[in-house]
Design goal:
Helices cover 74% and strands 0% of the residues.
Length: 413
């Protein structure tokens, strides 16, 4: 027996409910970004405390991020199917619970391998942003969709930029464990907010097996001329972004000669976060007026050119300025990439497909950091030209994808 054709029956929403939900999702994403930044940006500073030789920090940093990112990849397609089969809200909360557990394990880790296990638990958090964006797509007015996506999707990189600014002095004064303990408390607040802060109005009518629903989502991606280009384009885009973001702290410390590396990294990332708060939403507003695809292309072309500059600077202030500029512009572009992805997916499978939108980010990060663990043996600054090339390649793929048609959803029974 085939599935009920009404895949997305929703209860009526109050006219202003999307504004409250936008705020809740944005705050949750911001806290996620803050915690994620501490678990990523400060890894190079923490590795010597776990017994890693200073000369091996660059190589081991890439290894830690690549290995820990890979563990949760096979589960990504199933989170969206579980949300469609049962409910979205518990699956969203699930991601923050895994963040909480990951933080606990890393706090208690006494050696490198336990630390990797703790960070690997974090890979089971994937899929929450896609489900939040799907929920917003069904509630927010179309004229405010670009802004809403930019705020939610942009809150993570803003948190990842401001997180080191807040966490750097804490790290330098009280250590990595204290910093992650504070993150645990914040994450606990997010879990409570997501559990009791809104009512999930989505009513699941899907009755097929999880495996069949997952296969159905993958089939629709492959069948769609646009989606089968969009997803690889995002893989390429995030490979460069993840590579540059992971190794930027090492580049910063190579330009800094002092006793407060955590604080210094935090200031550089914090300035970028403040710039993103201004430039990111502005890009979203312009995109709502001019067109998402057009502004997406322009921002990523600019990002590709800007990625070349950090490799040419030889002082910390110049690096901080260009880092703020490239991160703020690329964040706006990435947010629009998720927006055009959501708009390219049929509504009846949007939740499942958008839950898989995390897959390019994580796989790209894994590929990028794997490359970084090899190429940075000579100079860590080589990662920025590589990011420029991957971004330029993704632009070409995105332009091609924009010219392809979307396809109606097919249902496997």
């Amino acid at each position: 027996m085939g599935p009920d054709p009404d895949m997305r029956r929703l209860l009526p929403n109050p006219p202003t409910s999307w504004v409250w939900l936008l705020g809740l999702f944005t705050v949750a994403s911001f806290v996620e970004g803050v915690s994620l930044s501490h678990m990523t940006v400060f890894i190079p500073l923490h590795l010597p405390e776990l017994g890693v030789a200073v000369s091996d920090v660059a190589r081991v940093t890439g290894m830690v991020v690549a290995i820990s990112s890979a563990v949760g990849i096979p589960f990504v397609p199933f989170w969206g199917a579980l949300a469609d089969r049962y409910a979205r809200q518990p699956i969203i909360i699930r991601s923050f619970l895994f963040y909480f557990l990951s933080l606990i394990i890393m706090i208690l880790a006494g050696n490198l391998w336990i630390f990797i296990v703790g960070r690997a638990v974090m890979s089971f958090t994937m899929g929450n942003t896609g489900l939040m964006l799907t929920t917003m797509t069904e509630r927010v007015p179309r004229s405010r969709r670009g802004l809403s996506f930019t705020l939610i999707e942009g809150a993570i990189p803003v948190g990842m930029s401001l997180g080191p600014l807040i966490g750097g002095p804490i790290l330098d004064s009280w250590g990595f464990g204290t910093l992650l303990t504070i993150d645990c408390i914040l994450m606990g607040g997010v879990i409570l907010g997501m559990a009791f802060g809104y009512r999930d109005k989505y009513v699941a009518s899907e009755r097929r097996s999880i495996f069949l629903m997952t296969a159905n989502s993958l089939t629709n991606i492959v069948r769609s001329p646009r989606l089968r280009i969009l997803f690889p384009a995002l893989f390429v885009l995030f490979a460069g972004e993840g590579l540059a973001f992971t190794y930027a702290p090492i580049a910063i410390t190579s330009l800094y000669d002092g006793d407060d590396p955590g604080t210094t990294i935090g200031i550089v990332f914090g300035v970028a976060g403040l710039a993103t708060l201004i430039i990111g939403p502005a890009i979203g507003l312009v995109a709502d007026r001019v067109g998402h695809w057009r502004v997406l292309t322009i921002t990523l072309v600019a990002t590709s050119l800007l990625w070349l500059v950090p490799a040419l600077v030889n002082d910390l202030i110049s690096f901080a300025v260009i880092w703020a500029l490239v991160i703020s512009i690329s964040t706006g572009g990435i947010s629009l990439a998720f927006s055009v992805l959501s708009e390219s997916v049929p509504s009846e499978i949007r939740g499942r497909v958008m839950a898989m939108s995390t897959l390019p980010l994580v796989v790209g990060l894994m590929i990028g950091t794997s490359i970084g663990s090899v190429v940075t043996q000579g100079s860590v600054f080589i990662v920025f030209p590589i990011a420029a090339v991957t971004t330029a390649l993704s632009v070409g793929m995105l332009i091609y994808a924009s010219r392809q048609r979307t396809a109606p959803a097919v249902q496997l029974s």
